[in-house]
């Protein structure tokens, strides 16, 4: 198992339905949630917020009722990574963000997650928590 990861599920309510922001991985161009590594000078929650901004160009409030640890399949499909998941309720989307030239961003309806996210266990975990 490789180094622990911290990931964030950026959620927004649009047209009375929850949607999740996904981004492409850098090298395989698979749809993923923003994910980073632990940083010594930041808390895990701060890393989650930073990754949401750097990779997806969104900001929001952390959902204090959601913090989950699970093994998430890497974009290559070859590794499982111990990942701590946080959820943010998005309140701001930027037109420009640090990794805009390296990634694409997509807003996906909850019921369509399986069509995009390669890790179906992750997709189920997201859907089971969101009830909108």
Describe the structure.
With 132 residues, the protein is of the alpha+beta class. The protein has one domain: Nucleoside Triphosphate Pyrophosphohydrolase. 17% of the residues lie in helices and 44% in strands. The chain has two helices and seven strands, in the order ββββαβββα. Strands 1, 2, 3, 4, 5, 6 and 7 form a seven-stranded mixed β-sheet that branches. The relative contact order is 0.28. The mean pLDDT is 91.
By CATH reckoning, the class would read Alpha Beta
Decide which structural class fits the backbone: alpha+beta
- How many strand segments? 7
CATH architecture title: Alpha-Beta Complex
Q: Per CATH, what is the topology?
A: Nucleoside Triphosphate Pyrophosphohydrolase
User: What low-confidence regions span 5 or more consecutive residues with pLDDT below 50?
Assistant: none
Indicate the proportion of strand residues.
35-45%
So, the CATH homologous superfamily? Answer: Nucleoside Triphosphate Pyrophosphohydrolase
Q: How many structural domains are formed by the residues?
A: 1
- The arrangement of helices and strands along the chain is EEEEHEEEH
């Amino acid at each position: 198992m490789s180094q622990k990861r911290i990931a964030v599920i950026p959620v927004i309510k649009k047209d009375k339905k929850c949607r999740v922001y996904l981004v492409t991985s850098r090298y395989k161009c698979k749809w993923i949630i923003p994910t980073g590594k632990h940083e010594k000078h930041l808390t895990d929650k701060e890393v989650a917020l930073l990754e949401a901004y750097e990779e997806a160009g969104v900001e929001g409030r952390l959902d204090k009722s959601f913090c989950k640890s699970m093994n998430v399949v890497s974009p290559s499909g070859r590794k499982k990574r111990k990942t701590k998941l946080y959820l943010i309720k998005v309140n701001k989307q930027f037109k420009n963000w640090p990794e805009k030239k390296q990634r694409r961003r997509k807003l996906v309806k909850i019921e369509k997650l399986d069509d995009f996210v390669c890790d179906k266990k992750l997709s189920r975990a997201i859907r089971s928590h969101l009830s909108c």
